[in-house]
Each structure stands twice: as structure tokens, then as C-alpha cells.
Write a structure and sequence with these properties.
single chain, 424 residues, alpha/beta, Aspartate Aminotransferase, domain 1, Aspartate Aminotransferase, domain 2, 5-stranded antiparallel beta sheet, binds pyridoxal-5'-phosphate
């Protein structure tokens, strides 16, 4: 390496790690080619043209660019309809709009995949009746725990769903900050058919964050009625400056649209303020960008397993999202890793991540991110709560060769700080 100085022994290990990735890489490329064709044909079939990339202001009536992008997203996700908007403030906001769009006072929602992602627990009101939460609006919450191996408890799910009526069954695809495995599309398919077999009119909704374009099918193609995700993750392709999407059955998207703006108005308003071009370009780039992030995760898994660490998923394991977990075994190692990774970022490389308390977390958290878009986790990033078992969660990488430098510099920092010894 001419531009980055790393330990000589680490350079040798890089060659081994790269060789170890070849099978996984060819699988990723195959999926990426398939998904790129899927997205390209959605663009062509929807008649995307230059006029769709323009700007609307004010109410945004008749923004044909916005309405056509909805069609593109629906086609690419194999869904009847979709809403894709820069104006969703975050993934959590998008999921919240979908939940409030469907659920009504007195309804019960059942989460099939254990405790949900941290910020979503607030939306449901899992722990307390937070102001503005679903619980505050009279929506009841239930949760089915995962089995001890981290997979959904299909028997228990069927039992619960046949015992009474649930308006919605909710599935979280990605592991979030949990050590359970993320759900493969085949597992989501199995869950959907289990729900439909006992309760056909329960709405199945999937939190699809981090999962888009990882496999060749999306949850809406295997039985989910509704799914939602964030545009600063996979489907924004690293280009969308923010936003989210909801995709699914027409009648449910209609209901969500009245929560997104207001009753009686729905999707007819919403100026795109010049963001159409970035959202189109980002969605077009998404299959490729997701593949680059996946390669970065696979490489991290290969290198750190050669360095003797436990990683999940393993290098050749089937992947359901772009997250890689490395068990670094100590607080000092987490700090060194994040500081090393940061030093290989295209933006803010000289920043030094340090552990700090975070609202909503009981332990201090350390985060590395040197991204073009604030908080974008489709860009190379890592974070870790400073607690047992000292796992770092890393994801993203707009392009593999740059992501790989970040991973190598993280490993090099562990060597320089005396945590890893490659001599002899
Ligand atoms: C990212 C993510 C969300 C949404 O988080 P935001 O930070 O609000 O975008 C929800 N669920 C899962 C599993 C996620 O990974």
C-alpha cells in the first residue's frame, strides 16, 4: 500500500483475507447484478424521464417526479404501491407513520421477533406510556420472545395468533443492536405463511432497515403486507440526503398516506424541494452500493477471524443485512477499533471517537463515522455500547476499496495499541 502505512504482517494477512472472501464475493455480485436489473427495469417500465428530476415547491401538487418515484420503488420491491419521501425524518419516523397509519385505538399489535430496535420501543410504548406513543393512543402491545437460538418461535406465534385477533404482526428483519441473527428472506416467508395460516386478515408489517437489496427478494414479495425503511441506509444508495419509504398493499399505503400528511389530503401534497434527482440516483445506485457495503462486511469478517476474533456472520455465511459484529473482547479494543476505522474515513478522518453517554442507552457508547451524510450508516461506520461482551457493530462502505482501508486501519490501530501481536 503506497498511501497508507500498515504493519507488514497485517499486509500479509490482508492477502489471505482477500482470498478467503472470493466465494462470498461472487454470491454478492450475482445478487447485485440481479437487483440492478430489477431496479433498471423498474425505471424503464415507469417511464422515468428528465422532467421527473425537477423541483417542486409549496404544496407540491402534481409533482410527477415524486409520484413516478413511488411507482419505481413499488415495482422494484414487488409491491402494489409505495411512498418514498425525503420528508420522512428518519427510519424510526417512517416506521412510526406506517404503524400509526394502520393501527387504531383498541387494536393489538404483536411483535414476532422479540424486543424491537431501541428507538421503536418508544413508538410502541413498550416500557412506558410515552407521550405520543401507540400505547398513549390506546393501541395494545404484545411480544413473542425469540427461541434460545435467536430464531422466531413459530409454534408460540401460531398459538398466540389463533387465541385472539391481532390487527398487526410486526417483524424486524435486522438484528439491530442485538446478538441474534438477522432474518433471511426465507425465514420471513416462513413467518408470513405461519401468520396467514391462522389469521389471514392480520396485517404483516416488516421493519426492513438494512435489508434492502441484500437478497434477490424483499419481504413484500414473500407475504408481507407492508414494509418500511430508511433512505440513509441501503435504498438511498449513499446519495439520498435523508428520508424513508413505505411499500406494500395499495389499501395500506393509502392509509399510511393519510398519516404521512393528513386525513383527506394524503399523498397529494409534499413538495420535493429539489431532492428528486438525489432520490432517483440513490435508488438507482442502491443495489450496487449495498453490494459494496456487503463486501466490506465480508472482508471485515475474514480479516478479524484470521486475527482470532469471533465474528458474526462468518465469512461464508448467508447474509440478511449489511451488519457485521466483531467481538473485540475489551473496552480498550473497542476504542482502538473505532479510532482506527475513523482515521480511514473520507470525511472527518482526523476526528477521534471517544465513549460518551447517549440518551436511551444504559452504558456509554462509542461511534465511528466519517460520512458525507450525517448519521448515514450505508457509509462505513461502527458503533459499540461499552459493555460485555464488547462487540462492535459495523456496517456500510460506499465502495469496497475505501471500506477495506478503514477496516485495515482499525486492525492496524489494535496492533499499534498493543492489543494484537502479530510477531512470531
Ligand atoms: C436503523 C434502524 C431503524 C431506524 O432507525 P433510524 O435511526 O431512526 O433511522 C429501525 N430498525 C432497525 C432494525 C434499524 O436498523
Amino acid at each position: 500500500m503506497d498511501y497508507f502505512k500498515i504493519d507488514k504482517n497485517l499486509e500479509l494477512l490482508d492477502i489471505k483475507a482477500t482470498e478467503k472472501c472470493s466465494k462470498a464475493f461472487s454470491r454478492i455480485e450475482k445478487n447485485s447484478e440481479y437487483n440492478q436489473q430489477k431496479v433498471l427495469s423498474a425505471f424503464i417500465d415507469s417511464g422515468v424521464s428528465e422532467m421527473h428530476l425537477g423541483v417542486s415547491t409549496g404544496y407540491g401538487y402534481d409533482d410527477v417526479g415524486r409520484d413516478t418515484l413511488d411507482k419505481v420503488a413499488a415495482k422494484a420491491f414487488g409491491a402494489e404501491d409505495a411512498l418514498i419521501r425525503h420528508s420522512f425524518a428518519s427510519g424510526t419516523h417512517t416506521l412510526s407513520v406506517a404503524l400509526f397509519g394502520i393501527l387504531r385505538p383498541g387494536d393489538t399489535v404483536i411483535v414476532l421477533t422479540g424486543r424491537p430496535y431501541d428507538t421503536i420501543t418508544g413508538v410502541f410504548g413498550v416500557d412506558e406510556k410515552l407521550d405520543g406513543s401507540l400505547k398513549d393512543f390506546g393501541v395494545n402491545y404484545e411480544q413473542v420472545e425469540l427461541l434460545s437460538d435467536g430464531t422466531p418461535d413459530i409454534e408460540e406465534i401460531k398459538l398466540r395468533l389463533s387465541s385472539k385477533h391481532y390487527k398487526m404482526a410486526y417483524i424486524q428483519r435486522s438484528r439491530g443492536y442485538n446478538t441474534r441473527k438477522s432474518l433471511l428472506i426465507s425465514q420471513i416467508e416462513e413467518l408470513c405463511s405461519a401468520v396467514k395460516s391462522v389469521s389471514p386478515d392480520t396485517v404483516i408489517m416488516v421493519d426492513n432497515c438494512y435489508g434492502e437489496f441484500v437478497e434477490t427478494r424483499e419481504p413484500t414479495q414473500v407475504g408481507a403486507d407492508l414494509m418500511a425503511g430508511s433512505l440513509i441506509k441501503n435504498p438511498g444508495g449513499g446519495i439520498a440526503p435523508g428520508g424513508g419509504y413505505i411499500a406494500g398493499k395499495k389499501e395500506y399505503i393509502e392509509m399510511c398516506s393519510h398519516r404521512m400528511t393528513c386525513a383527506g389530503v394524503g399523498r397529494e401534497v409534499g413538495a420535493t424541494l429539489g431532492h428528486n434527482r438525489e432520490l432517483y440516483m440513490g435508488f438507482f445506485a442502491a443495489p450496487h452500493t449495498t453490494a459494496e457495503a456487503l463486501k466490506t462486511a465480508v472482508y471485515a469478517s475474514a480479516l478479524f477471524s484470521l486475527l482470532g476474533y469471533t465474528v458474526s456472520p462468518k465469512t461464508d455465511e448467508a447474509r440478511a443485512d449489511i451488519i457485521e459484529i466483531i467481538n473485540l473482547k475489551s473496552k480498550d479494543a473497542l476504542i482502538s477499533f473505532c479510532q482506527g476505522l475513523q482515521s480511514g474515513s473520507p470525511v472527518d478522518a482526523s476526528a477521534v471517537p471517544t465513549p460518551a453517554p447517549m440518551p436511551g442507552y444504559s452504558d456509554e457508547v462509542i461511534m465511528a463515522a466519517g460520512a458525507f451524510t450525517g448519521g448515514a450508516s450505508i457509509e462505513l461506520s461502527a458503533d459499540a455500547p461499552l459493555r460485555e461482551p464488547f462487540c462492535v457493530y459495523m456496517q456500510g462502505g460506499l465502495n469496497f476499496y475505501s471500506g477495506k482501508v478503514g477496516i485495515l486501519l482499525a486492525a492496524d490501530r489494535l496492533i499499534k495499541d498493543g492489543i494484537i501481536d502479530l510477531r512470531g
